[in-house]
Amino acid sequence: MGDTIETFLCAGAESAEEACDMLVAAGLELIRAARVSRTVLDTFDGRLHAAGMRLEAQHDRRLELVLTQDGSPSVRIASDTVPRTSSDLPSGPFRARVAGVVDDRALLERATVVARHTVAEAVDENDKIVVRAVIHDEISVPEAPDVNVPWTVEITAMAGYPKPAARLVGELAEHGFSAVHGDTMDLAMAACGIDPRGAPSTPTVPLDPCATAAEGYRDVLAHLRDTIVANLPGAADDLDPEFLHDLRIAVRRTRSVLAAAKHVLPRDVRRRFRHGFGDLQRLTGSPRDLDVYVLGWDDLVAGLPAEVVGSLEPVAERLRSERARAHAELSRALRGPQVTALLDEWSTYLASPSLDPDDAARKAADPLGPLAADRVRTAQKALLDDGRAIADDAPADELHRLRKDAKQLRYLVECFGGLAPPELVRSCTKRLKAIQDNLGAFQDGHVQAELVAEMAPVLAEQGAPTHTLVALGRLTAELEQRSAQARAEFPERFASYDRPSTTRRFERLAQAMVS
Amino acid sequence: VKVVATYSIKGGVGKTSTAVNLAYEAAESGGRVLLWDLDPQGAATYFVRVKPVVKGGAAKLVGSKGALAPHVRATDHPSLHLVPSDFSLRHLDLHLDHTKDPRKRLDSLLHGVVDHYDLALLDCPPGISLSSEAVFGASGVLLVPTIPTTLSARTLDQLAAFLREERQHLGRSPEVLPFFSMVDRRKKLQRQLVTSLRAERPSFLQTEVPNASAVERMARERLPVAVVAPRSAAARAFHDLWRELAGHLWT
After folding, report:
1. Cα–Cα distance between B169 and B160 in angstroms, integer?
2. Which residue of A has its CA nearest to B116?
């Protein structure tokens, strides 16, 4: 349905000017030539690319945003600014399409290419454009001035008009041009080593079950370290909430893997870095909680009458200002000497020869597969034992401990998932997620209710109106109710996890990790 | 995809100029737009410079093996595509009648392309016929250009009565959004009718499209009003009409 663009490189010595002459000889008319700056915008984790979309900020005489998608017409709108998030886009279908893919992630400038575009078109007897050719030459990449990108000709076959484009493609082939995969921007990004897929979000790395445990743990921990380092600037700049979220998850996974590294890594190393990453985790806790309250405010107050939500505005305002303060503190801390030293020391340790099996703990030289499988079995057993021990009147702490068990198991399955078939890993994490969602709803509701209740005397002291304090009480009750509901659902949720089929599935996973 | 039909029982009320100009405005504002010319006169097709040819004719287009995709043509605006019309569409009712479920046929044809467009605009011929019912079955909104005349209210009543019957038959019917078209504010009677009709029917959109020479220039230049006369009152009106409709569709 969309127009089809084919890109051609010249194999011979012809210049872009000769290509212009060729296009004119083929019946096209030169329309315009201009220097155009094109910047690809995508999220840190390449969501638009993964959805088959590309968003570009193109600057010629004016700024335009261009959205292309395989099989669809391309869309072009004028803009005053380069959008930083989808909410900066004008409302309507353009924004809806982008927002539907990127959600609340920031739009980052992935690559910029500047080139001269010479546009030539052919029209039919109705003066309707039936084929367009654009020569891209004098190409430069401001971020990588030494990179050489070859000049190209892009032919656009308009939807419903394949023949004129096919004729032109034939002419180009006769003149020694050869078709290439992708367009000029793809070629430029490849030449600069920019991966359009963005940063990987999966914790899974390819692992060899026969490698030593020390090598396998190093690969997993190094990958998590890379994730922490990659997300740290975005979290410090508060570009979007996902940077902090992903940073925290990578830190938690690091601590989980360190906890499961007994006899693989030296005790002092495990203790030192678990402690160091624990500090980092605590540092990020409050800003993340406030992200959830502020950015998820609508979910927090869902179910309350509109007038109650209106009365809670001073609460929302206070949370917003607390969030701003917490993020400012976090930004300083993430750029501070303590975090820098932690990551430097961690990187030094991961690269150091002390990981050599001879010098490490007693299981460091064991094969990775059986050891990882053993750790998964142990974690699964702990989860089942602790879960079965929870009575109807068990205190909240027991459920919180169970949540930690579930996280520990989930992180082991994900981080050492490279040893097993992906579908088996997905199936195990899906079962875990069901129980984690329930435990999360219970604990989050509980913690949120406490936080909200603690705000009441503070707001009262600051002279908040009575209806706000009453609304705060309603919100606290609502959150406690949600937590109680999750608690009531727990036995059924756990029972549906604690089944022979789950045990068999985890055992299959463990066996797959060994072989 | 949102499906909007420019429709009126009456002819000569500005359906095609509305469809073409709204399609252009929608594309300019970032939408992927499919304009489907269902009128055998092919005026919308003419306005966007596409040849009035339906390969295989209306029979092939709407027949049981028909599909919309092979008929789609790019226009000179990158995100505005067209399914052209030709004279074979004068027998559209007949060809629809040969299909299994004629009232749902246009809807099922649109389903084949929904992933690629944000808005499908159907430019309909005047009258009430089987093809009108198929349009009602496919559309979420009927945009009804209404010249402020005494007979307009009667025409809207006829449409409302017909749609009530359709609702019983199909289980649904499109929302009707009338707007004043070809308005001549110099005429006192028209001004009075605009006021009284608005009072009687709150569903009228706020935007009024004036009776303007700029709209006539569209035919000569074969370009939308926003291009041939960007500062004209008509261009502003179509821009505002799109904004008003988009606000209705995307909120």
Report:
1. 14
2. A72
